[in-house]
TrEMBL record:
It comes from the Eukaryota. Its main location: membrane. This is Tetraspanin-33-like. Coiled coil: none annotated. One of its GO terms (cellular component) is membrane.
Length: 133
């Protein structure tokens, strides 16, 4: 994995307060070779999730806070890490702000229509003045 990808994933997980991508949430990290829970995994981070999934990551940078959470039940893990997937979290954010976003888009559209009308009116006045010369 590239550092840029890792940084992007960490930033999204911290800002959106999520862990993993799909509806499986934090269990998505089981597909990662470093965080895989299989018996054959030699990684010290086996069954863990990245620290950016931790609820207290911004206040307490404990790099081991997500260790072994994949082996826990979701109710236990939710005290330590964000368990919902990022796609689900982003959809929830968009749904909760739908009316605000629609209002902003509507206002911008009205403003653009007004400016277009004013520009057309000015152009017509310029052409009228030119015709008088």
């Amino acid at each position: 994995e590239s550092e840029n990808t890792k940084d992007l994933v960490d930033t999204v997980q911290m800002k959106v307060q999520c862990c993993g991508m799909t509806a499986q949430g934090y269990l998505d990290w089981n597909r990662n070779e470093y965080f895989n829970c299989s018996d054959s995994s030699p990684s010290a981070e086996k069954c863990a999730v990245p620290p950016s999934c931790c609820i207290t990551y911004m206040t307490d940078r404990n790099m081991m806070c997500g260790y072994s959470v994949q082996a826990m039940k979701e109710s236990e893990a939710s005290d330590i890490i964000y368990t919902r997937g990022c796609v689900t979290a982003i959809i929830q954010i968009l749904e909760s702000n739908l009316y605000v976003a629609a209002g902003v888009i509507f206002a911008i559209t009205l403003f653009q229509m007004y400016v277009t009308h004013q520009s057309r009116t000015l152009l017509d006045q310029i052409q009228l003045q030119r015709a008088r010369w």
